[in-house]
Amino acid sequence: MALRLVQANFKARDDSALGRFWVEALGWVSRSGPGATSVAPAGFVWTDPDASACVDVIAVSNPETVKYRVHLELATTSASHRTELVARLKELGATPADVGRGDVPWTVLADPEGNEFCVLEPREIYRDTGPIATVVVDCADPRAMAHFWGEAMDWTLHGVTDDPALLRSAEGVGPYLEFLRTPHLKDVRHRVHLDVVPYRGDDQAAEVARLQTLGATLADVGQGDVPWIVLADVGGQRVLRPRSGLTRSLPPPAALDAVRRRAQTRNRRTTLP
């Protein structure tokens, strides 16, 4: 049994607007319903083992107040490509972000909702990832996170140290997953989380039990009666595990409407600091 990373889930005041930004930024397509927008490569299917991780945006009323633990890093193929991409992203509404890293070869921007992301300089390791080079997770212990996720998914470890740890799909497709040591992490409600999906035919209850033996814990975020399970990994990062046998390409409008209603319910129950 194993899981695959299928998407980074963002929260936004205006999911449609943020979805349009990421469609233009990544060159992908979107499908929207009331309060939810999915952004993915054309033909994306969650259960396809060759599918790349995508972006899901859910509307919430809470304003952005904290730095997310998860951010995206975008790949470029040349210095000119990087320059052109940064300029285009700014035209789309991205703004420069100062995260105190000083003189670095990459550019840090914030999308129209304030989510920080990086545009990397050309790196050989990311030449075949597609537009997203890495999904980066801030954490206190990269080794522990790499061990957990290496066991939870069938992804391959590409380097584990006390600072960064790097994994990628065993199929060698899509972005890397990087765990970056980050001091002084705050224990706040995570408005970005990772969604994972099992392979077709795997038993949900058995998979959840397996994750718990690895150190995951069940999490109640007010999700109510839904077909997926919410857990927290060993670093406290929330993970949504969809039910087994999920075959849809992008969420249909009815499902997106249900997501919107659940998100609104959670917003009434929880206030961000």
Question: What is the count of DSSP helices, taking H or I runs of 4+ residues?
Answer: 5
In the sheet with the most strands, the strands line up as 2-3-4-1-13-16-15-14
Q: Which CATH-level-2 architecture?
A: Roll
Q: Looking at this structure, what is the CATH superfamily?
A: 2,3-Dihydroxybiphenyl 1,2-Dioxygenase, domain 1
CATH-defined topology: 2,3-Dihydroxybiphenyl 1,2-Dioxygenase, domain 1
Instruction: Tell me the strand percentage band.
Output: 25-35%
Q: Uncertain spans, ≥5 residues at pLDDT below 50?
A: 243-273
CATH level 1 class label: Alpha Beta
Distance between the termini: 38 Å
Shape summary: globular
Average pLDDT over all residues = 83
Domains, number: 1
The percentage helix is 10-25%
Class of secondary structure makeup? alpha+beta
Number of strands: 16
Biased composition (Basic residues): 261-273
Domain Glyoxalase-like: 10-120, 135-238
Protein name: Glyoxalase-like domain-containing protein
Pfam families: Glyoxalase_6
Describe the structure.
With 273 residues, this protein is of the alpha+beta class. The chain has one domain: 2,3-Dihydroxybiphenyl 1,2-Dioxygenase, domain 1 (Roll). It contains five helices and 16 strands. The strands form two sheets. Strands 2-3-4-1-13-16-15-14 form an eight-stranded mixed sheet, with helices on both faces. An eight-stranded mixed sheet has the order 6-7-8-5-9-12-11-10, with helices on one face. The radius of gyration is 17 Å and the shape is globular. The protein starts with a strand and ends with a helix.
